[in-house]
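Propose amino acids for all 132 sites.
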């Protein structure tokens, strides 16, 4: 997937003459969906794969005129983007919250054991640490 996203980014780089604000929307629409595809399942793979996907986004932010000399985190901040690792973590937290709020009733009960402390002053979404 990183190879396909890199090829699309190369096509955008060669096909667009203005390096201004056009690159960011094109990257978001054409390239980023390839990097986001099944990212929750791929997060358990090797670190070198995650670095390869992050390099594609790093290359996309370097293409934009005036941002190439800035550090990667600063470029992301100026463009309003997040790193792929942070996006994956956010997606994991959203799925976890949906399980806890009983969005997935058939799967959530078998995956997590909730604490039964609703009478006390807590939020009721605490999990019991299980044994494997």
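Proposal:
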């Amino acid at each position: 997937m990183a190879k396909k996203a890199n090829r699309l980014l190369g096509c955008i780089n060669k096909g667009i003459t203005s390096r201004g604000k056009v690159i960011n929307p094109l990257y978001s629409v054409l390239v980023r969906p390839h990097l986001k595809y099944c990212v929750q399942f791929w997060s358990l793979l090797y670190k070198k794969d995650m670095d390869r996907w992050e390099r594609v986004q790093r290359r996309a932010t370097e293409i934009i005129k005036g941002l190439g000399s800035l550090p990667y985190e600063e470029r992301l901040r100026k463009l309003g983007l997040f790193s792929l690792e942070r996006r994956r973590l956010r997606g994991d937290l959203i799925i976890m919250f949906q399980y806890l709020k009983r969005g997935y009733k058939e799967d959530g009960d078998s995956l997590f054991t909730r604490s039964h402390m609703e009478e006390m002053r807590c939020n009721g979404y605490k999990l019991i640490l299980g044994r494997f």
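Residues 109 and 117 are 17 Å apart (CA to CA). The radius of gyration is 20 Å.
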